[in-house]
Design goal:
The complex is a heterodimer of chains A (228) and B (204). Chain A has 228 residues and is of the alpha+beta class. Chain A is built from 6 helices and 6 strands; from the N terminus they run H-H-E-E-E-E-E-E-H-H-H-H. Chain A has 2 domains: 39 residues; 178 residues, no CATH class. In chain A, 37% of the residues lie in helices and 18% in strands. In chain A, strands 1, 2, 3, 4, 5 and 6 form a 6-stranded antiparallel sheet that branches. In chain A, a hairpin with a 5-residue loop joins strand 3 and strand 4. Chain B is flat, with a radius of gyration of 18 Å. The two termini of chain B are 28 Å apart. Classes of the chains: A alpha+beta (228), B mainly alpha (204). The interface between A and B is large, with 35 and 38 residues.
């Protein structure tokens, strides 16, 4: 096939036409996808709520939002058919992950027991820090937090004076995850009435444990080794 | 060369990843999860198909001296288009692997097929060539990422296949990508050599 001879005019004209078509196509696609792109993707769906807190009839559609230091914590209160509060679903974030933020959805019943959790978002290393997704659900190995009453258990790593076994080779990720869970519990306890009938509020006010956990977290983070 | 032959060459005997070791950077970077590898490979294949088609369509207007520049401009446009569509349709998946999406422009598989095939051949032949190479790239990345996810974490496409403790984190990390890719290339070469020996024996 005969190809046109190269000249500055030829090439300039070609680039001008190709660039014009490119810009038009991009502009069109940008316009068509604009509505979808500006929607904030949400992980907080009824399916994930049911996963972390199976027994409820109704859940708040608009969450209560609290600011705890850097982290924003969202609380969705859940109710049974008699409109009695049966627990809450808490979306908690930790900025202390090895790579970045870790978002966790945790289901608490009205007695302060963790029913289930789901890690919504993380960028931890696959095969190491990413194991937090299921690590704390395992019945073996001293790292289960499902069915645990947070007021009766020190939800910190063994390295930090707590009772939970860290993910092998990923202490920082495990610590960040537990930080998010503890923060979620503290917000429920101090700033909501979810545990109103359980008697937890009085107990917690007399106990300095959560504060000391936070302090031990800061100290141990500073001491942290090369592990993730 | 017939269309079907150029298609099958792209998939198996001239596979861009396992035979020519092209596009190694995305291959090594995105293949720690099967879903990540598959999604970026799909995006790359779509850009390859669209750019091959467009370049072969307008090849009569492109002077030889500026064919690389024009091809890059076209590839960049389609990469941006695919990125916008990917983000708008699958935002949650884009959140995980979207960072690799703009890097499709730098994938040498695309430029190689554009300047070695699309500027010389007919539109139909270019489409078949892009389909072959695209499917070859998808197959290679899915195989590599599937093996890495399975051996690294005991999961496949995020479903737990083996127990939690099965995984070997080395395979899921960067050295694992090189090891698994090397082993697959070695396997490809040994099959190729065995076939060649077999053909030589039959010829004698």
């Amino acid at each position: 096939m005969n190809r046109p001879r190269f000249s500055i005019i030829n090439a300039s004209f070609l680039f001008l036409v190709v660039s014009f078509i490119s810009i038009t196509v991009l502009g069109l696609i940008h316009y068509c996808t604009n509505e979808n792109r500006t929607k904030i993707p949400t992980f907080e769906t009824l399916e994930t709520f049911k996963y972390v807190l199976p027994l409820f009839q109704k859940v708040d559609s608009i969450p209560l939002e609290f600011k705890e230091g850097q982290e924003t914590i969202k609380v969705y209160k859940a109710y049974d058919q008699y409109k009695k509060c049966v627990g809450a679903i808490v979306c908690s974030t930790s900025h202390n992950g090895y790579v970045g933020e870790i978002d966790v959805l945790i289901g608490f019943d009205a007695k302060g027991e963790i029913l289930n959790y789901r890690v919504l978002r993380h960028k931890e290393t696959i095969g190491l820090g990413a194991r937090i997704v299921n690590w704390f659900k395992s019945k073996e190995g001293g790292h289960n937090i499902i069915g645990v009453k947070v007021n009766e258990t020190n939800l910190s790593l063994i390295e930090d004076g707590g009772e939970i076994q860290a993910v092998t080779g990923a202490t920082v990720s495990a610590r960040a995850f537990l930080f998010a869970v503890r923060n979620a519990y503290l917000v429920l306890l101090k700033k909501t009435d979810v545990f109103g009938d359980s008697g937890l509020i009085d107990e917690s006010n007399s106990s300095p444990e959560p504060t000391s956990e936070s302090d031990s977290l800061k100290v141990s983070t500073l001491k942290g080794g090369p592990n993730e | 060369m017939s269309n079907s032959k150029s298609f099958f060459e792209g998939v198996v005997s001239n596979n861009p990843v396992f035979v020519f070791v092209l596009g190694a950077c995305p291959t090594l970077a995105v293949t720690n999860t099967a879903i990540g590898g598959l999604s970026i490979a799909l995006c790359t294949a779509l850009v390859l198909l669209l750019s091959n088609f467009t370049i072969s369509l307008i090849k009569g207007l492109i002077p030889t001296k500026v064919e690389i520049t024009t091809s890059l401009l076209i590839i960049a446009t389609f990469t941006a288009v695919i990125q916008l569509i990917f983000y708008s349709q699958l935002p949650l998946l884009y959140d995980k692997v979207g960072i690799y999406c703009p890097l499709i422009i730098t994938n040498v598989v695309l430029l190689r097929r554009a300047i070695m095939f699309a500027v010389e051949e007919t539109v139909m032949a270019s489409i078949f060539d892009a389909l072959g190479n695209g499917i070859g790239f998808i197959a290679a990345l899915t195989l590599l990422s599937g093996i890495r996810e399975l051996l690294g974490t005991g999961r496949l496409f995020e479903y737990q296949v083996f127990s939690e403790n099965f995984g070997t984190s080395l395979i899921a990390m960067a050295p694992g990508a090189l090891i698994v890719l090397g082993l697959i290339i070695a396997f490809f070469n040994s099959v190729k050599r065995a076939r060649k020996v077999n053909l030589d024996t039959q010829g004698n």
